[in-house]
Amino acid sequence: MNLQIFTHFGKFILWQKQIFKRPENWSMYYKETLRQMYDIGIGSFPIVFLISIFIGAVTAVQFAYQMAGTLIPRYYIGYIVRDMTIIELAPTITCLVLAGKVGSNMAAELGGMRQKEHIDAMEIMGVNTSTYLILPKLIGSLVMIPVLVCAAAIIGIAGAYLASVPTGFFMDDEFITGLRSFFVPYNVVMMFVKAFVFAYILTSVASYQGYFVRGGSIELGAASTRAVVYSNILILLADYVIALLLTV
Amino acid sequence: MIRVENIIKTFGKQEVLKGISFLFEAGKTNLIIGKSGSGKTVLLKILIGLLHPDSGSVWYEDKNLTTSTKDELRQIRLQCGMLFQGNALFDSMTIEENIRFPMDMFSHKTAKEKLHRVNDCLERVSLAGINHKYPSEISGGMQKRVGIARAIVLNPKFLFCDEPNSGLDPKTSITIDNLISSITKENNITTIINTHDMNSVMEIGENICLLDNGHLAWKGQKEMVLSDQSEVLHDFIFASPFLQKLVESAK
Question: How far away is chain B from the Cα of A206, in angstroms, using its nearest Cα?
């Protein structure tokens, strides 16, 4: 079992080389990349919107509760919500959710293609399936997931505003002052670094699980689950490593 | 032509192919027959390069498939077409898109030329006019014919068919067999069919190899099948009690 982890890790690393090969036909890859961008970006926006707005709202309400009766200036709520959302909540929570939505979808799609011999059929036609099936997904993710993360940050802050200002927890100017205070542009860079790394992890891990699936529907279900679980673990691990590298 | 030399393939401790050597001739329908588990599919997958043999070699004319690099393998595969047992048609694409896919990927024809070729291929398999249907909207026999149309769209030199008659009624099976046979003759293709359908053997078996427990048990043509004294061949061909009675009464 332990040795299998190393086998899979080695196979995964060697497979990465196969993904980045010259496309057989640029226009086919372009079309497929657009399709993936649409599926990942537009297809995931509603869930990202919903989660972000509630996470922002809950963060604001919880902080309002924790700050009650303390000497911390009230405008800090905007500052705390902004930085927490940009640095941690938007990239990490969004990508954890996308690992579930997009990752499991990719694993199931590729696994289904493997089981129905679609991948074999393409191979026999002379298509480099590792490149044709995975590269557009990777590009689609690397372009659209940072956009979704950016949208999640904005929506999260908007959610915090909606939960705290109209409801009377804070005054409008308190929240806005906090939002404008102590802004460090580097935090936005950190958000995008995380978004890119997490996008790569969730796409490549999910694709690996789907592409190499063997067996029947039970194995396909297991591969889809593994895609989500392993992506989540690796995203959290990468989150810690990036935090160490970029902040310490 | 495709030549295999002393192919050995093992899965774990089980030796599935035990030194198979055979010549698949050009312009003929070459049949790989045998009982379930005799190694037919493994041999076909080795021929097409989806599996690598433990030892032995596969020659596509003068090119050795077993020692070729991935790029060389891709070049060889550009000359191949394959009809899968389950058709392997892309469900989310229309019939036209399915057949056009290899051309979209590898040819520099204009959209009009591609459409013309798709229509030619559909006409060749007697399915003109179903361009915009999806695979789920047509019958199993029609799906097989679409699979053939897709396999021949790039004018392959080598055509592989894995159990082309599985799941089809006898009449449709004969239609598919005749279609494969005539396409083989028209284009001088090396066609290799993996089957255990006796109608196919007797209809289109121009060059037959019988596998038994991983060995090449018999080779010959359809004309030799009934007269040959090989016990393994006899056991395979006349496995059905009905056929045994028929032969005995004929004798």
Answer: 21
